[in-house]
Amino acid sequence: MSFDTLGLAPAILRALAEQGYDAPTPVQQAAIPLVLEGRDLLAGAQTGTGKTAAFTLPLLQRLFVDAAPAGGKRRPRALILTPTRELAAQVHENVRAYAKHLRVFATTIFGGVGMQPQIDALRRGVDILIATPGRLIDHLERRTVDVSGIEILVLDEADRMLDMGFLPQMKRVLNALPRQNRQTLLFSATFAEPIKALAREFMRDPAEVQIAARNSVVATVTHRVHPVDAARKRDLLLELLSQDSRRQTLVFGRTKHGADKLVKFLDQHGLRTAAIHGNKSQNARTRALADFKNGKITVLVATDIAARGIDIDQLPLVINFDLPMVAEDYVHRIGRTGRAGAEGLAVSLVSHDEARLLRDIRRLLKQDIAIENVAGFEPSSPLRLDGNGGGGQPKSNGAPRKPNHARRPHAQTPSGQHPKPHAAANKQRNWRGGGRDARKA
Ligand code: AMP
Fold it and tell me: Atom 1 (ligand 1): residue with closest C-alpha?
């Protein structure tokens, strides 16, 4: 299937060709016709599926081709709400690229930076607003933004907005928007009850599109766990990073403080490292991400929320210094590797007290994870992975495994024989090979 059959204007098709996209992704194929029909939409799709274009392309077509704005002062006709500043900035970048041959002005509104430039931009007049909920409410309260002309609302990564406690702000924004003739598009990786309730309250008979199976992971990622004592994690990380100090690696830590400490430690050992987390200024975060993308630094240490939605191409390696508290976040983390058909490796350093988290992750992935000791870093006691919710006897790491055990996930795999993950989970994630390479060329 090509983009030509979707009914998009030549100006949009030209921009897509310039991006090097040759075919719509599954979520684009499913969502674009529905949005063009004017339907409200509930779309289940994660970062990396092409979801941004899935809502942006038909939005541009409807508002700026089919019903081009009348002359006079511009006021926003589309609002895209995102959970984080990084995602807002990325969506803005995409909007800019796709609208390159249209006369459309977009701006971002997010916290952590000065109000005044945003007020000035709004005063000059914009067509598309990309905003995080908190800062948008600041503008609503100061009456520096006029949302009475919003025709299309997009809630991007709605589940994460709820996770971050934005529900009251989202409702406030929704209540401030026109109800009549407003089209609402909700994108979310998961559809827990609060999301469904939001949809029932604020959407009109939404069409539903489900792309990736819930919590599916890229089939080309190999998962590996290194058991280690908590006190030795730093040294093990250093050892792993030193094996190839030019390899771009994203390291996940659980806390901001921990991430900072890790950066200091790695820095002291000569690795070019930066951290990205919620306590960093927007400028520092943008700079760290840019430095990482252009290779100035090779190690980026991130917390889950800061890393959510950041688009980094084809990382060969993601290391979980700590396991995430919520198993779903593991899936988001490793979504940064193994993209575009490239092989990726997700390595987790797991200490004794994290065994339960690892069990949760394995249950969620429904997939084996190779467990390998690293010589010189063997833990003082083995991980307890055989408990179904707590019980179980510790296994000796060197103990022979029962052959053909029916429940392989519970076995520890000897070094060098880690199994490939099951490929069936989500083939659709492999759509990108050609398009992105072409774009990069
Ligand atoms: P998203 O899921 O919106 O974060 O998109 C992930 C990445 O896929 C972005 O870098 C997009 O530029 C890219 N992308 C989106 N649609 C396509 C397409 N049809 N062909 C190739 N790349 C795409």
Answer: 50
Q: Check whether residue 206 and residue 226 sit in a common domain.
A: no
Domain end point (choices 182, 210, 238): 210
CA-48 nearest atom, ligand 1: 2
- Please tell me the predicted confidence (pLDDT) of residue 338: 60
Query: Of 181, 210, 239, which one is at a domain's C-terminal end?
Result: 210
pLDDT of residue 178 exceeding 70, the answer is yes
Residue with tokens 């310039």: 18
pLDDT in tens, 224-269: 999 999 999 999 999 999 988 778 899 999 998 999 999 999 999 9
Which of 51, 52, 90, 218 to probe ligand 1 with, by most ligand atoms within 8 A of CB?
52
Q: What CATH number should be reported for the domain holding residue 130?
A: 3.40.50.300
Residues 156 and 266 in one domain: no
pTM above 0.70, yes or no: no
Per-residue tokens: 98: 């796709």
* Of 27, 98, 311, 431, best ligand 1 pocket probe by most atoms within 8 Å of the beta carbon: 311
* Residues flanking ligand 1, CB < 6 Å: 21, 24-25, 28, 47-53, 311, 432, 435-436
Q: Structural domain of residue 61, as residue ranges? A: 3-210
- Please check whether residue 436 lies inside any domain of the structure: no
Q: Is the pLDDT reported for residue 188 higher than 60?
A: yes
Whether 420 and 327 map to the same domain: the answer is yes
Residue 227, beta-bridge partner list = 350
**How confident is the model over 28-43, as pLDDT tens digits?**
999 999 999 999 999 9
